[in-house]
Design brief:
heterodimer; A: 943 residues; alpha+beta; 6-stranded antiparallel β-sheet; 33 strands; 45% helix; elongated; B: 135 residues; OB fold (Dihydrolipoamide Acetyltransferase, E2P); 5-stranded mixed beta barrel; two-stranded antiparallel sheet; 21% helix; 34% strand
C-alpha cells in the first residue's frame, strides 16, 4: 500500500489548510501575549506597539481561520473525496445548497463555525472596545487558541491533539480499494444525513453558534475587569453584549425547538433532552447575569454576582460542548455526537477555563467593592437578586439530572483509584424525563412569574417603603385580582389537571398583567422601559403557551372502537397513538374523518395526501383540509431515511401529523417480491362491455377496452405498445361499485403490467401476459397492400373508401413522446362506411437519421395503417393498408383475492392547542432583549 | 453580609433537599434478571436485538403493538413488548436502550432509544458503479 502512486489526488489544499491551522493556533497565542504585554507595559508608546502587534496577531489568526474554512468549502464543492471530510459529508448527488449544512455537520466544521463567530465578534471588539481592548482581546485570543488546538491533528509522542480537518481518507481507514492507484475514480462520498437536508440545518447551527460565541464576550469582559482590577467600569460596555447574547442564544435555542417541531417527527418543541438542556442552562445564567449587571450598575450591589454569572455562563457553554462532543451522552440523547477520542482534550480545556475563572475571581474576591450597607428588604435590587438566585437554582436542577452520565464516569474514575467497583452507583435518566423536569421547573416558573411582576413596582435603594407601600399594594392587588379572573377563564378553555397548574397559570398571568400595567401606568410608555416590560410579558405568555399546549396536547389518531385487544400491563388507551389508514378508506378518529387519498413520488421523496374533515355534532363537515406528510427513501428504495411531518396551523391550535410506519412491502423490496409470489391469480376471460365474471363473493366487468390508456404510474416512451381496460368490481348483490383501471405495456422485449388494486375488497387484478395477442392483430398475419396517396385523394381498400385529408405537424400518436431535433408528422385518414366515420393517424418520425413508422388502427373496422415511405418531391405518401375481420375481442383478467393490504400508512396525529401563544411569547421575550440592547447602545453614545 | 449568609444557607438546604428528591426519581441500568426481581420499578436495560427471532408488527391488527426479542448484557434473551409503532429502520439498530419493567416473562417497554451504526465507526466506501460496498 505504501508504494502505490495515487492518481488524481490534490494534496495542495490539505497542505495549505494544515499550515493555516497551525498559523491560526500560533498567531492567537501571539495575539494573547502581545495584548498581555500591552496591558502590563508602563510606557505608553511601548504599550501602543504591543497593542499593534496584538491586533496584527488576531487579524492573522482571523485570516488563517477564514483560509481553513475556505479550503474546506473548496474540497467539498470540488468533491475531493481524497479528503475524509469531503468524503464523510458530501456526495456526488448532494446539491450545493446543502454545502453549508454539510460543512457544519461535522465536529471540525462546527468548531470552525464557533471560531468564525468569535473572530467576527473580535473584530467588532477591536473597533469598539476602546480601553478594554487589551484585556478583552487577550482572553478572546486565549479562547481561540484553545479552540484552534482542536484543529491541529498533531502528534506529541503517542498523543494526538485535535482533529485535522484535512486528513486524507486513506489515512483514516484501511480498505483494499486503497491498493488501487485510481481509487478516486471509483468512490463517491457518503453524503449528508438526509435528516439534515433541510433549511433548518442551514440556519439553525449558525444562529446557535453565534449564540455560544456571544456568551464569550461577557466572559472576556469579566475576566479582563478582574485582571485589570477595574471592577466597575466594565458594567456599562458589557451590558449591550450580554443583552445581545440573551437575544441570539435564546433565538438559537428557540429555533432548535421550532426545527424539532416543524421538521422532525419528535412530536414537540421541547423534550428536556440533555443537548437541549445544556444550551438552555448557559442562557438562564446569562439572563441572571444581565439582571445583576443592571442592579450593580444602578446601585453597586450584586457586583460579585455579576462576575460569577458572566464567568459561569461561558463555562457552561463549554460544559455543554463537552457533554455533546465527548460522546458521554451516548445512551441518553438523540442528538449526541459520536465519540471521537476528544474526551480528555475537552476535559482539560474545560478545567483550564474553570481554573482561569476561579483564579481570577478568588484573587480579587476581597477587592471587589460592595456597599457597606445591605440592600433593604423592600428594595428592587434585593428582589432582583432573589430572582437571579431562582434562575441559578433552576440551572442547578437541570444540570443535575442532565449530568447523570458524568456522575457515572466520576464513580468509575473513583472506583479505579480505590480499586473498587462502584458500578452499583450508576444511574440512568428518569423513566419520564419530561415529567421529571417539569415537576421541579414549574416552581421556578411560578417564582419568576410573580417576581417579574411584583418587582417592577419596587424602587432601587428603597429607604422609605412606607411612603410607597400604598401604590405598590394597589398595583399588586389589581394584578392579583385580574390574574385570578384570567386563571379562572383559562380553566374554562384548558383542562388543568392539578392544583399546581392553577398556581403556575396564575403566576404567569400575574407577571403578564403587572408588566402591562407597569408599561402603561408607571413607565408611561417610555421606550426605554419597553424592552423590560416586553421581555417579561413575553416570558409569561411563553410559559402559559407551553402549559396550554403541553397539558392539552392530545393524540387524535385514536379510534376507540377500532383498537381492540388490549395487552395486559398497559393501563389504558393512552398508548394508542397511531392509527392505520388504508388508501381510499376514510376512518373516523376523534372528531375527524380522515382519508389517505394518494401518494406521489418525486425523486426519493414520497408525499402522502391525507384529507381531514372536521365533523360537528350533527355529523356534518365543518372544516376540510389536506396535510402532506412525507418520507424520504434511500437510493435503493429499501429503507426510509426520514419521516417528515406536516402541520395544519390554526390561530389557536396546530394539528401535527406524521407517518409513523409503512407496510413492510414498501420498505423492503425482497419482502414485496415474496408477497407477490404468494398471491394466487385466477384467470377470467370476458368480452369488454358485455360479459360479467363472478368469483366467490365478487362480480366484475370491463367497461372499456382502451388502446390509449393513461395511468399515473405510466410514462409513455416512443415504441411502446400499450393496452388497458377500465373495469368495475363489486360485492355480489350490492350496489357499491369500485372502479379501477389496469394496463400492460410492451417496451422492447419486456411486458410490464400495472395492476389495479381494490383495497376495499382485498383484491388485485392484472391483465394476462397474452393480452396483446388477444387485443392486437399480429403484424405477420396481416396482408398489407401499398397505396400512393396525394393529399385529398380517396382510394378504396377492400371496398372501403379511405380519404387522405392532410398532414398534422403536431402528432398525437399515443406512443410518441416529442424530443428535440425530431422531424415528426402524422397523416390523417378518414374512413366513411356509410354507418360511421372513423379516423386513423399513423405517424412518421425521423430521429437522429433513423426513420420510424408508428402504425395506427381502426379496430372496429379491422383496418391497419403504416406510412411506408414519404416522397416530398411529388408531395405524396406511400401507405400500407391491411384489413382483417373485425372481431369481438376477449380480454383475460387475472384476479387475486385475499391480497394483504399494502396500501396503508400508520399515522400519528397530535393536536397542540395554544402553541402560537408559546411562539408569540418567546418571540416577544427575545425582541425585548433586542430593544433593551438598542436602548443601552444609544444611551452609551449620548454619554 | 449577615442576610447573605442566611440566604445562602437556606438556598443550600433547599438545593440538597430538592436534589435528593430528584435523585430518587433516577432510573438504573439493570439486566432482565434484576428487573424481574423488582417488577414495580422502572429500569433501563441495554442490549442488542436478536436478529434470528421474529420482529412482530402488524399494523392491520394493531398499529400500536410491536414486539421483538432482545439479549441483555448477560446474554439473557427476553421478549419485549411496546405499545407503539415500529420505528423505521429498527432492524438495523446496533444497540437498544429500553425503559420499562418486567411483567412475567416479558419486558414491557415504555420507551426505547436506538443506536444505529455511526457513519464514523463502521465506515463504508460507496463505489460509484453500484457494484456493492467494500469494507
Amino acid at each position: 500500500m505504501e508504494t502505490v502512486q495515487y492518481i488524481g489526488e490534490n494534496l495542495w489544499p490539505g497542505r495549505i489548510g494544515h499550515a493555516a491551522a497551525v498559523i491560526a493556533f500560533v498567531s492567537s497565542l501571539f495575539a494573547a501575549f502581545s495584548y498581555f504585554f500591552s496591558e502590563k507595559s508602563k510606557d505608553l508608546k511601548e504599550s501602543a506597539n504591543w497593542k499593534k502587534l496584538g491586533r496584527f496577531g488576531f487579524l492573522t489568526h482571523g485570516f488563517s481561520v477564514f483560509l481553513v474554512i475556505g479550503l474546506i468549502f473548496f474540497i467539498m464543492v470540488e468533491k475531493m473525496y481524497e479528503y475524509a471530510y469531503a468524503f464523510n459529508h458530501v456526495a456526488d448527488d448532494l446539491s450545493n445548497r446543502y454545502i453549508l449544512s454539510a460543512f457544519w455537520e461535522g465536529q471540525e466544521g462546527s468548531f470552525l463555525l464557533w471560531m468564525f463567530w468569535h473572530i467576527i465578534l473580535g473584530m467588532i471588539l477591536l473597533a469598539k472596545s476602546g480601553k478594554w481592548e487589551n484585556g478583552v482581546m487577550m482572553f478572546l485570543s486565549i479562547i481561540q487558541a484553545t479552540l484552534a488546538v482542536m484543529l491541529l491533528g498533531i502528534y506529541f509522542g503517542d498523543v494526538k491533539v485535535g482533529l485535522d480537518p484535512f486528513i486524507l481518507l486513506r489515512e483514516t481507514m484501511e480498505a483494499p480499494i486503497f491498493n488501487e492507484a485510481n481509487y478516486l475514480e471509483k468512490i463517491t462520498g457518503s453524503g449528508l444525513n438526509p435528516l439534515l437536508q433541510n433549511y433548518w440545518m442551514t440556519i439553525h447551527p449558525p444562529t446557535l453558534f453565534l449564540g455560544f460565541a456571544s456568551v464569550t464576550v461577557p466572559f472576556c469582559y469579566a475576566a479582563a475587569a478582574l485582571w485589570t482590577k477595574r471592577y466597575k467600569e466594565w458594567l456599562k460596555p458589557v451590558l449591550p453584549w450580554a443583552l445581545f447574547s440573551g437575544f441570539i442564544l435564546g433565538t438559537g435555542i428557540l429555533m432548535g425547538g421550532a426545527w424539532a417541531y416543524e421538521a422532525l417527527s419528535f412530536g414537540g418543541y421541547w423534550a428536556w433532552d440533555p443537548v437541549e438542556n445544556m444550551s438552555l442552562v448557559p442562557w438562564l445564567i446569562m439572563v441572571a447575569g444581565i439582571h445583576m449587571n443592571v442592579v450593580s450598575k444602578a446601585t453597586g450591589q450584586s457586583l460579585k454576582a455579576t462576575f460569577i454569572f458572566y464567568l459561569l455562563s461561558f463555562i457552561l457553554v463549554y460544559y455543554s460542548t463537552f457533554l455533546t462532543r465527548s460522546g458521554i451522552l451516548g445512551d441518553t440523547s438523540v442528538h449526541a455526537f459520536t465519540e471521537l477520542g476528544l474526551e480528555w482534550q475537552l476535559t482539560s480545556i474545560l478545567l483550564f477555563y474553570v481554573g482561569i475563572a476561579l483564579f481570577l475571581y478568588i484573587r480579587n474576591e476581597r477587592k471587589i467593592p460592595s456597599p457597606v450597607k445591605e440592600e433593604s428588604l423592600s428594595s428592587r435590587e434585593f428582589w432582583m437578586f432573589i430572582g437571579s438566585l431562582v434562575l441559578l437554582f433552576s440551572t442547578v436542577l437541570i444540570s443535575f439530572t442532565t449530568s447523570i452520565p458524568v456522575f457515572n464516569k466520576l464513580f468509575d474514575g473513583l472506583g479505579m483509584l480505590l480499586g473498587m467497583d462502584f458500578s452499583d452507583f450508576h444511574r440512568a435518566a428518569p423513566e419520564d424525563p419530561v415529567a421529571h423536569y417539569n415537576k421541579y421547573q414549574i416552581w421556578i416558573a411560578v417564582m419568576i412569574g410573580v417576581l417579574s411582576g411584583a418587582v417592577q413596582f419596587l424602587r432601587y435603594r428603597e429607604s422609605n417603603f412606607a411612603n410607597h407601600r400604598k401604590k405598590f399594594l394597589i398595583h399588586s392587588g389589581i394584578a392579583l385580582g385580574l390574574s385570578l379572573v384570567m386563571t379562572y377563564l383559562t380553566s374554562w378553555i384548558v383542562e388543568m389537571y392539578a392544583w399546581q397548574y392553577f398556581v403556575l397559570v396564575g403566576a404567569c398571568w400575574y407577571g403578564v398583567i403587572s408588566n402591562l400595567d407597569y408599561f402603561i401606568t408607571v413607565s408611561k410608555a417610555n421606550p426605554k422601559l419597553l424592552g423590560s416590560a416586553l421581555g417579561h410579558v413575553g416570558f409569561g405568555l411563553m410559559i402559559l403557551g407551553s402549559v396550554i399546549s403541553g397539558l392539552n396536547q392530545h393524540h387524535i389518531s385514536t379510534n376507540k372502537f377500532a383498537q381492540k385487544g388490549m395487552i395486559e400491563g398497559f393501563s389504558d388507551d393512552d398508548y394508542n397513538k397511531n392509527i392505520l389508514l388504508i388508501k381510499g378508506k376514510p376512518m373516523f378518529m376523534s372528531g375527524y374523518m380522515v382519508n389517505y387519498e394518494r401518494d406521489t413520488f418525486i425523486g426519493q421523496t414520497r408525499t402522502f395526501t391525507v384529507n381531514y374533515k372536521k365533523l360537528d355534532d350533527k355529523g356534518e363537515i365543518s372544516q376540510e383540509f389536506n396535510l402532506y406528510p412525507n418520507v424520504l427513501y434511500n437510493k435503493a428504495f429499501s429503507k426510509i431515511e426520514a419521516s417528515n411531518p406536516s402541520t395544519k396551523h390554526y390561530l389557536f391550535k396546530d394539528i401535527f401529523t406524521h407517518v409513523a410506519s409503512l407496510p413492510k412491502a414498501e420498505t423492503d423490496p425482497e419482502y414485496a417480491r415474496q408477497l407477490e409470489d404468494s398471491l394466487k391469480y385466477i384467470s377470467q376471460t370476458l368480452i369488454p362491455g358485455r360479459d360479467t365474471f363472478t368469483m366467490d363473493s365478487l362480480e366484475g366487468w370491463i367497461t372499456k377496452l382502451d388502446y390509449n390508456p393513461k395511468h399515473e404510474d405510466y410514462l409513455p416512451m416512443p415504441g411502446d405498445l400499450i393496452v388497458g381496460v377500465d373495469m368495475i368490481l363489486r360485492k355480489k348483490n350490492t350496489l357499491l361499485e369500485f372502479p379501477a383501471s389496469t394496463m400492460a405495456i410492451i417496451r422492447g422485449s419486456q411486458i410490464v403490467r400495472i395492476p389495479a388494486l381494490f383495497n376495499e375488497l382485498n383484491t388485485k387484478v392484472r391483465l394476462t401476459k397474452d393480452v396483446f395477442d388477444e387485443t392486437f392483430v399480429k403484424e405477420e398475419e396481416l396482408e398489407y397492400k401499398s397505396y400512393v396517396f396525394k393529399q385529398g385523394a380517396t382510394l378504396k381498400h377492400a371496398g372501403i373508401p379511405i380519404t387522405f385529408t392532410g398532414f398534422g405537424k403536431e402528432p398525437t400518436h399515443p406512443g410518441y413522446v416529442p424530443k428535440e431535433g425530431d422531424i415528426a408528422f402524422d397523416a390523417k385518414f378518414e374512413v366513411n362506411t356509410g354507418q360511421e366515420r372513423q379516423v386513423a393517424k399513423p405517424m412518421y418520425l425521423i430521429r437522429g437519421d433513423v426513420p420510424y413508422n408508428l402504425k395506427d388502427e381502426i379496430p372496429s373496422l379491422g383496418l391497419h395503417f403504416i406510412i411506408a415511405e414519404v416522397d416530398p418531391k411529388n408531395e405524396q405518401l406511400i401507405v400500407n393498408i391491411a384489413k382483417t375481420e373485425p372481431r369481438e375481442k376477449k380480454v383475460t383478467l387475472e384476479v387475486a383475492q385475499n391480497v394483504p393490504s399494502s396500501e396503508y400508512i400508520v399515522l400519528e396525529a397530535i393536536v397542540f392547542p395554544g402553541i402560537n401563544l408559546f411562539w408569540f411569547g418567546s418571540i416577544a421575550m427575545l425582541v425585548g432583549f433586542l430593544v433593551m440592547m438598542f436602548v443601552r447602545l444609544r444611551s452609551g453614545k449620548t454619554t | 453580609m449577615k442576610r447573605g449568609v442566611i440566604l445562602g444557607i437556606i438556598l443550600i438546604i433547599a438545593a440538597i433537599a430538592v436534589l435528593v428528591s430528584m435523585a430518587s426519581e433516577f432510573s438504573t441500568y439493570e439486566t432482565f434478571a434484576q428487573s424481574a426481581k423488582f417488577p414495580e420499578k422502572s429500569v433501563k436495560v441495554v442490549g442488542v436485538l436478536s436478529k434470528d427471532k421474529s420482529i412482530d408488527y402488524d399494523p392491520i391488527k394493531d398499529p400500536n403493538l410491536f414486539s421483538f426479542y432482545m439479549k441483555d448484557a448477560e446474554e439473557e434473551e427476553r421478549k419485549v413488548i411496546m405499545r407503539s409503532a415500529k420505528p423505521q429502520d429498527f432492524e438495523k439498530s446496533e444497540k437498544i436502550v429500553l425503559t420499562g419493567r418486567m411483567q412475567g416473562e416479558e419486558f414491557i417497554a415504555s420507551d426505547m432509544l436506538l443506536k444505529c451504526p455511526s457513519k464514523y465507526k463502521d465506515e463504508e466506501i460507496f463505489v460509484r458503479a453500484e457494484t456493492g460496498k467494500l469494507n
